[in-house]
Amino acid sequence: MSGGVLRVIGALPPASSVTVTADGELLAGGSAGLMLSAAGLALEPGGTLGFGFAADGSSNDRLAVTGTPLLGTGRCAFYLAGTSLPFTLNGTYTLLTYSGAAPDVSGLACANPVFGKSYAFAAADGSVTVTIGSDSAGASVWNVDAGGDWANGSNWTVPQPGTSGSAARFDDAISAPVTVAAAGQSAGALYVNSPFAYTLGGTGLTLDNGSSAALIAVESGSHAVTAPLTLASDLAVTLNPGTGLSLGAVNGAAATLAAAGTGALAFHAAPAVQALDLNLPAVSMAAPMTIAAPVTLQRTLSVAPDTGVTVTLDGAVSGIGGFLKTGPGTVSYTYPGLNTLHTHDVNSPAGVQNIGPYGDAPTTGVTGFTIT
Description:
Structural class: mainly beta
Radius of gyration: 24 Å
Number of helices: 0
Largest sheet: 18 strands, parallel
Number of strands: 36
């Protein structure tokens, strides 16, 4: 196959042999549960095999090849099941089985590598496996089963420089929740992947990736940043399915905070940024706050203030997504302009509440809103 991605969710015709060219990808299911059989398999240089993985690594798509597969300098892509997000959980996984001689896997590489990860391929006893691990030689990965100071180089596989554009990974070294204390360091990208909570605390952390957006990527688990965040660049937050991130003070008068994914985002203080761009199903607010920044919605967003919490939206809400107020708290809406909000009232026939230019009409059918 060539020229794009061929996703197979059933079975190939009997006795089929597959050749994947440099610009092609054979995606075996993508659902973490498919066993795809082929009479033969050949990867041309740069040809890609794609596999879906369950988030906990308990299952993944596989290929069963008659004879010896020819893998050459092909590539393998690893995805969270049902998404195009990279699968990054450390472990050893079987990718394909074969009935002939062991294939040469020395030229295989990962097609969608992630910072701080290593990928080692092996062929033995009728199976080709990949071992995903932490890149202890070339990346700054938290390396102690404890909390500690960011500035202590011995806490990292490679001392984290704390400078603009640098990256850090917080992975599976810990066996219980820990706090990492930052004291004015800078970083361009943070990657977090652990079932135990990392809290990035301390006196402050600057996210600075030059002209590109800085990144917080939550790959697994629920984590928190309690240290005051200063944004010297725009910030992109990505939340994999089932993950969570809590943010404290975020300050970036010239920065856009964009959050995307299907995980849970919680604000404990109003982000003081130039703009918010939200492509998430829900955001929770644990403390009273006034959000002055304009908000762009890329999908319908549920806003859930906690009990006794009033969240005041003082900026324009726009975008293709709706606005759904949930949770026991209150949303106070003070922006003096035209906005369209999804209501929390299930009896609203259209499910949309239009607020006039001065927030004065109509105001019926709204549950949990204060309009001023």
